[in-house]
Amino acid sequence: MSKSAPESTSEAIFDPRVLPDYGWYESGQSALSGSLLELYRRIDNMFLKWASECQAAEFFFPTFISARELAKLDYFRSFPHLVTFPASLDAADDNLKRFTEGTPLDQEGCVHLTALDPVRNVLTPAACYHFYILFQGQALAEPRYVTTRATCFRRETHYLPLQRQWNFSMREIVCIGNSDEVKAFLGRYTEKVQAFFERIHLPVNWVNATDPFFNPSKNPKFLAQRLDPVKTEMVFRTGLAIGSVNFHRNYFGEAFQIQRQEQEAFSGCVAFGIERWIFAFLNEFGPDQKQWPDLNTF
Fold first, then answer.
1. Which of 30, 89, 223, 248 is 20–30 Å from 182 (CA)?
2. Distance (Å, rounded) from C-alpha 239 to C-alpha 218?
3. 158, 150, 157: which is closest to 275 by C-alpha?
4. Are strands 144-153 and 57-59 parallel, antiparallel or unpaired?
5. Between the CA of residue 74 and those of 129, 168, 187, 267, what are the distances in Å?
6. Torsion angle (degrees, nearest 10) of CA 29, 274, 130, 24
7. Tens digits of per-residue pLDDT, 4-38?
8. Whole-prediction pTM value?
9. 25-64+125-297 in CATH: which number?
10. CB–CB of 59/70 below 8 Å?
């Protein structure tokens, strides 16, 4: 875990590595304690309160997602650069013996693996995926409003404390229903979140965006998002997206055969990156918790 001094930058960005309540791992992970951990909880509790306004049922999901299920979204062709796999050694005695008698770890900190067990799971890349897998094959008598907080994993070319991490916390509020139900849900929460930004004077712009596809110019999903934007990001003044509003159309309903009113269900979600919200608070309001907005009033 690194506590090194922040690198110099031409832009005045607060670096959390100077704080005693923060620890940074160069592998792209954060450790929080004290006031920062309390801020983490308060932010997520606020999101959970927002979710209760549509009576969203809360779920807790495991860290793994079945690779077979994720393949229904063509995830491995669309996002091979982001995916992280849990891997384990083939349990055969001779394979384990080769591993222990070889060089399990070299001087660079790299593990030298022998044969692996088949990889059948993926570490969660987005919180809402679990819902579509859970509800697949169902016919919904009414729209479903649900929420979860997940530890998500996305491999990146580089990492920055609280801004760009290999694993991070994502809170999502999700609606699965017909097109009008989902659009109304997204409209209500867009207005709510914008009103919150204005009330605490957090400088955030709403920007149309696309998902980070591999080789995007050759991916028809990317081209479709460019022609008809379905993703709007909440972009903090430093250029960091701290959340997004996403209209999935009937993509997940078709992939997982979820029905609403005898048609493929539509879905949409409001997603918040909790560590990124902490970054925005530190940069806008400073490290003194007495200067932070009282989130219990929202």
1. 223
2. 26
3. 150
4. parallel
5. 13, 23, 28, 18
6. 0
7. 333 433 467 999 999 999 999 999 999 999 999 99
8. 0.91
9. 3.30.930.10
10. no
State the amino acid at position 269 in one-letter form.
Answer: C
Q: 64-66 and 57-59: which strand pairing?
A: unpaired
Q: How far apart are CA 106 and CA 112, in angstroms?
A: 8
Q: Is the dihedral of CA 188, 193, 196, 202 positive or negative?
A: negative
Distances (CA, A) of 237 to 12, 189, 241, 264, 284: 11, 21, 9, 38, 9
Alpha helices in the chain (DSSP H): 34-52, 67-70, 75-78, 93-101, 129-134, 179-200, 220-227, 251-255, 274-285
Compute the distance between CA of residue 46 and CA of residue 292 in angstroms, rounded to an integer: 14
How is residue 256 written in tokens? 């997982």
Give the phi and the psi of residue 218 in degrees, each rounded to 5. -110, 5
* Tens digits of residue pLDDT in 25-81: 999 999 999 999 999 999 999 999 999 999 999 999 999 999 999 999 999 989 999
End-to-end CA distance of the chain: 35
* Residue written as token pair 């809170």: 171
Task: Annotate 149-179 with b (16+ C-beta within 10 A) or e (fewer).
Answer: bbebbbbeeebebbbbbbbbbbbbbbbbbbe
